[in-house]
Amino acid sequence: MKKLILPLGILAVTILLAWTILSNPPKSRRGEAAKAPRLVVETQLLAPVEYQVFLDSYGTVRPRTQSTLVAQVSGQIRFISDKFRDGGFFEKGDILVRLDDRDYQAEVKIAQSTLMSARQALLEEQARAEQAREDWTRLGVAGEEANALVLRTPQLEAARARVLSAEAQLQKAALNLERTKIVAPYAGRILQKLVDVGQVVSGNSPLAEIYAVDYVEIRLPIKNRDLALLQLPEQYRDADTASAGAKVEFHSDLTTGQIWTGRLVRTEGAIDDKSRQLYAVAQITNPYAGQSRQKTPLKIGQYVTATIEGLYLRDALVIPNSAIYQGSYVYVVEDGLLKRREIETRWQNDEDSLVAAGLKAGERLVVTPLGRVSSGTPVVLASEGDGERPGNRNAAGASQ
């Protein structure tokens, strides 16, 4: 009997101790359970704002007007201007090249002599015709009109024709003499000089490549998704042509802190076959004005980057790019819980994104970097109390 009572007593004591431990856990554990850490996040309250869109593009500087300067007559080059050098500037009307004009001066004199002879012959023929009319009148043939041959009308008309021909020959000779002076057709710059003093050129021989300096143009590709955010200059007929296009600022790696300002003036008439994009053309007026104050003036063929002034939006929903994950979703806080939200962006630059769908005003966007966090995780706003910072967590669960 004693052997049976001892084991039963030990068993009863063991059960009593186990029940006491389970029903009265340590205070430290209860405290830890009551104070389980929650994720602390910073949020941004979404609200419509006024936002100026700026679009990025690029292009190469090219002249609006570019020409090949040619000789219209032949001859030896006797003179070239000091401005007739690669990169030289010239004004409209400047004589850039002068050809040997002695042969053309002789042709002018010959044409003048021919004209004088033709006029003398015309005067003589006019006198003969007048004499013929007087003779016919003296004959007094009643009721009959003198025919053209009697009055020498054909001979008179032939003399007048010779005068006209001589005048035309003189004009042509004088024009050829004038063309021995190669005159600048506009204010511009020499892109490439092709001839020099002593060289004999013929008609239509190229002398230089030149371009106008009143404007330069830059052809800018526009992304298809950016077209709706830009006022394109595509007026036609009754449209207000006086309205200026969008402002554009240009920068170049060749200079530091230099900015050229221009405007969009037109778009090309078709989508580019290769890039499948629309190209807009920007224009810079007087690009060489004040060039003495610039370290490096604009050059034809220079690569530049462009910042185009887009639309001014009055009710845009703008969020930072850092709040977007994998380019397609964000996190918002709803009732103390983290919620994943798929979004669509209308446009973005290096810092901001315009939201097209997926978010609305009044929601709280999480701007704290989270990494891989499960939707539905309890969170605490940074302004409401202490909790576990995202950077202190080792793992937060898989993203859904």
TrEMBL record:
GO terms for molecular function: efflux transmembrane transporter activity. Residues 68-207 form the Multidrug resistance protein MdtA-like barrel-sandwich hybrid domain. GO terms for cellular component: efflux pump complex. Gene3D superfamilies: 2.40.30.170, 2.40.420.20, 2.40.50.100, Helix hairpin bin. InterPro entries: MdtA-like_BSH, MdtA-like_C, RND_pump_MFP. Residues 115-176 form a coiled coil. Residues 315-370 form the Multidrug resistance protein MdtA-like C-terminal permuted SH3 domain. Keywords: Coiled coil, Transport. It is found in: Cell envelope. Residues 378-400 are annotated as: Disordered. Its main location: other. Belongs to the membrane fusion protein (MFP) (TC 8.A.1) family. This is Efflux transporter periplasmic adaptor subunit.
